Amino acid sequence: MFNANIKNSIRYKFIKILGGVVLVSSGLLSLTLGIKEQRTLEHSLATKTQDMASYIAQLSVDPLIMQNVIILDFLVNQTHLDRDVLYAFILDARGNDVTSQYASINYQSPRIKSILAGLPGKIAYREALAAIKKIEPLLEVSVPICTGNDVIGKVLVGITKVNIRRQIIQTMLFVACFNLGAALLAGVLIFFLSQKIIFNPIADLAAAASRLAKGDIANAISVRIATTGELQILVDSFNRMVGDLDKVTVSRGYMDSILEGMNNALFIASPQGKITRANAAANKLLGYEDGELLNQPLETIFAGVFPFQPYKIESHLAEGPMVSREMILLAKDGSRVAALFSVSTIRDGQGQVSDLICVVQDIRERIRMQEERQQLKDSLHRAEKLELLGTIAGKVAHDLNNVLGVLVGYSELLLENIPEGERTRDYAANILKSSEKGAAIIQDLLTLARRGVVSAEVVNLNKVVSDFFLTPVFEKIQDYHPLVFFRAELAPDLLNIKGSPVHIEKALMNLLANAAEAVSKIGKVLVRTENRYLDRPIGGYGEIKAGNYAVLTVLDDGDGISAAELEKIFEPFYTKKAMGRSGTGLGLSVVWGTVKDHGGYIDVHSEIGKGSAFTIYLPVTREELSEELSKVPPEEFMGQGESILVVDDALEQRELAVSMLTRLGYHAQAVASGEAAVDYLRDHAAELVMIDMIMEPGMDGLTTYEQILSLNTQQKAIIVSGFSETDRVRKARELGAGAYVKKPYVMEKIGLAIRAALSKTANISGKVS
Fold first, then answer.
1. CA distances in angstroms from 613 to 473, 541, 642, listed in the order given
2. Cα(first)–Cα(last) distance of the chain, in Å?
């Protein structure tokens, strides 16, 4: 069974045609020769029969005249010696048989026997003769018997043509075999000549074309065929075409390398929007395997346009040679990819669009960076607002601290000098408490400006929450919002933080007050604590860095906050609360400042009608909670007559400090500036110098201490101020200064700091508050 490729080959078809030509030509030639031979044999048979009948006619004249039947039967019987003769009759002038039946019919002939054997029973003579003539192909010759000019009868001889036909068939078979052999020989010769001249060149050309179709251009070039004429022209043209195609293929391969190496996704599509090619970047961008995007319509992978509109390929065809839009791409897994989609058209010679070239740039990172830049811009804007307020608050707080410091100090001195039971002692105590409350207000302003002093205590948020729920302040919030149910979910294994419990409680108070205010009718407020580890930064109201955090969350099911309001909630004095009952708009600003002072982060999620969630992330510490300090006995912080120089630019602060130090048992002197302190110490000695950090105009606390150290490298000192510990404060302490004490201070605080600095038994590294 032939292979289908062989059946379709030109050689196979040529052999079939050549074989058909050989057979047909051989058959036609044999038929022609057979017909010619048949005519020759029939002519020979007719001549032989004519001669035989003429001979009998000559011999039958006299016997016929005498009606001698015996002689006539003998004469016709002699013809039976020729087995081909079937019958021979002698008829008289009237056409009657003269010879007998048995003498006339050649019963010895195999043909007569075969014919008569097939006839039913015995039949009449004439019927037998009619059957012979009907069945057997024969040649019948009639010769007249004459005497002079008179015809006295005739001789009728019938001879079979079967033998002639047999000879013709044998002759034709011989001739056909001979012709077929000669034709086959000629066909083989023609085939081999054609093989060399035509088929081999065509086969080589076909093999080269096949290699070319498979992309094997290198082995398809320069087909070398020894031929001439039109075939050689075809070969030369093929070689030139392959050479040109090789150049095109090299260029296309170069272009393919460029397209596949592109970082941007590339699609080539038909004018109807069917994708005909997608490079590796396109498959990777949308999560497809190579080839999966082919024949897919663009409408299925481009979900829409920014702002969202249905994608229409016609818009690109109508808007010129190059169109760019920000698109939303639909990936294989259903996710959406923001991208810049640029499409250009390729036109054919008639100016019709033949292809669309679509270049897609992933802009997710760009959008993310834009969002980050916007967030940074917003954060910077918020920080600038807070910084501006902080600058104002700082100056106000400095002056108020000086005033409140005098009130606190003199109130404490009054309490020391008024005996127990005196009515005026209660007045002095109330003045001291009010002054301390005023100091707390100043601390809020400083916290808002992120300049508040934060004590470095180990704090547990669970205790802060539990303690606050027992305070009168929380009861007041509950009284204002009787339809709000407050609940706490505190993690039992919550890690500790380091900071100021007072400031954290104040932040919690503001968050709870805001949450209760947001619930217009019946609702719930939940306070939740938990440990949370972030293995990478996350985005929130600001970026939250990786690390371990103790997380405090305040949730409500109130009215929620709009997106526009979320941008402003931490701005100073921005409030929608009822004035006179819920604050002045500094609450969330204080929360923001407190969280930042503790190195933490705050995140806000809110939706109109679904409530809000404020989440505070505070860095954890592995330190354990310290036991609460009991009140220190006065003898532990009293002086022993040591000399102390007070350096402060505020007169009332100097007078207060001298009074308090004198009451503590120290010999105190005071100067109004850093320059005066340096001049004083050139001529006088002081066992300790108490330096205010901020003095205007003139040298500040750090510069003053540096100048003093140039006079006496062993000079002891402590730093006092109403502001938080700055880099200049830390620098002063690195140079040898002792504790850092926050204004306003009481005798216990300042006394302990002085004793620690004088005794050198403790190097106080934190702030005394």
1. 22, 12, 56
2. 107
